[in-house]
Amino acid sequence: MKILVPIKRVVDHNVKVRVKSDGSGVDLDNVKMSINPFDEIAIEEAVRLKEAGTASEVVVVSVGSQGCQDIIRTALAVGADRGIHVLAEDGIEPLAIAKTLKAVVEQELPKLLLLGKQAIDDDSNQTGQMLAALLKWPQGTFASEVRVEDEQLTVTREVDAGLEVLTMPMPAVVTCDLRLNEPRYASLPNIMKAKRKPIDCIEIDSLGIDTTPRFKAVTYTVPEQRKGGVMVSSVDELIEKLKNEAKVL
């Protein structure tokens, strides 16, 4: 069984992003970039399924600029077997990404697609669902547990009311939540081995995908800083402040 894992290059989650002075976007100059954390969870799950003998090959795919080669190499160092880089401009919207991934799926013919549930840069949470719809495959989103038995896939997913268990045939699409696993770190020997693993490059134009933006961000602003708290000496003083300052009563 082949598993395909789409991954996205985002600003590292430890970096505090800065808005450009003209408000036209986020300043990415000299900013550390890394794999989207939810995608790291998807890679880890795919590698675990391979180590358990359930999967025979793990392929990672990333859509974006030349910098995506770095995160593909990181995924290969963690345990993926092969990488695919669809060379395109950064910032492509989720629908175009889903269409691009559909074209890759039709070439690779995987049995299982594992994605992060969302990217931390835009929090869209759309690509996995759109991709499943385009492929007409069953889907399990926000997965906290994944089990494969023969041709059946069992996904435990987190919902508002608790946990929901879904059983579906494969091929299928699964988006991964935080509690699915704890991603491993790449060891130095595996980092060296990853340099010899193949990465196939594809021009997005060759796939015939329309990447024209469907919306335009007018401006970006930094959220207002919250004011510090105030100590009150009595309940009456608290109520008075809530009436006159917070405007909640």
Automatic annotation (TrEMBL):
SUPFAM superfamilies: Adenine nucleotide alpha hydrolases-like. CDD domains: ETF_beta. Pfam families: ETF. Keywords: Electron transport, Plasmid, Transport. Residues 23-211 form the Electron transfer flavoprotein alpha/beta-subunit N-terminal domain. SMART domains: ETF. InterPro entries: ETF_a/b_N, ETF_b, ETF_beta_N, Rossmann-like_a/b/a_fold. Belongs to the ETF beta-subunit/FixA family. This is Electron transfer flavoprotein subunit beta. It comes from Vibrio alfacsensis.
